[in-house]
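As agreed, record copied across for absentees:
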Amino acid sequence: MGQPLRQQEKDAIYEIVNRTLHQFHGLKPGEEVNKIILGLLAKYAWIYGVEIFAFCFMSNHFHIVARCRSLQLHLFMRDFQSQLARKLNKLHNRTGTFWERRYTATKILDDDALIDRLRYTVCNPCESDLVSHPKRWPGLCSWDIHHSGEPMWGEVVDRETYWREKRKKKNEDKSEAELIEMATVRYPLEMAKLPQWKDLDDEAYHAKIVEECHKHAGQLAEKRCKPCLGPKKVLAQKWSSRPANPKKAPRPLCHGGDPEQREEYRKQRWDVADSYKEAVGKWREGKTPVNRIEFPEGTIPPGHQFCYGCKGQFNMTVPPRPA
């Protein structure tokens, strides 16, 4: 079965979701796991210029609400997921496939749906009856940033710097911990403001998000018919375990919008797919080089890693260290 055609739009906001193979608890919260996820998420969001509005990493899947105006969302996810899988496989002393499938990026059509997906993302541990409030979730969640109003700082060891410093004679007496500290790069992870609330100052914005999530967690608590699992039992789970009855739901075409908007978006997707097929047909004829064929903006031509219309801009500067 073929995969749906990927298309990115510069101003579109997407909910990105993926889960582990057979939904095993490879992302189970823990000090080292949280540190790895935070470091990689902050690093690649910095490099590819991804605006993140909310995120939550559960034991076997994750949700990220994000936008990438540079049309490099697929590169961000490629590097983030591949490095995360490699590091967590090493941590768990396992090999092989980590993710069950490629990630899904579902477009959010309107402001109401955007607020709804943000609430759902931040309160996802409550939706799954694991904890009663997002503040009790031991895993990585943007609730901590919204509640404190301060960015998180992810740490990543630059292996090239590490080996370069280790080979220097002046560093022969330095310990392993000192060399790692010298090679550690710290990246800030801040939450972008939702477009409809962009005029609020930082304090008012984060207070608004906290209020929305607190209200949503309360509504879920009222509907809950059984006690939550609790953070202690979540942490006690084995990373190799998986749910007895894993939940699966079909991916929606988009989030939000009235029936007319959704139908219009569906037709737009069909038009893009038809245009892409036509462009691929010209490429397969072999008469025209792929770089001279016009593909729909935001799609990836065959054999290329950049979207059509993407300039391939990366932020390779080292961020200033936190005070």
User: Anything to note?
Assistant: The chain has a mean pLDDT of 92. Residues 13-151+190-261 form a domain with the Alpha-Beta Plaits fold (CATH 3.30.70.1290). The chain has two domains: 13-151+190-261, 157-184.
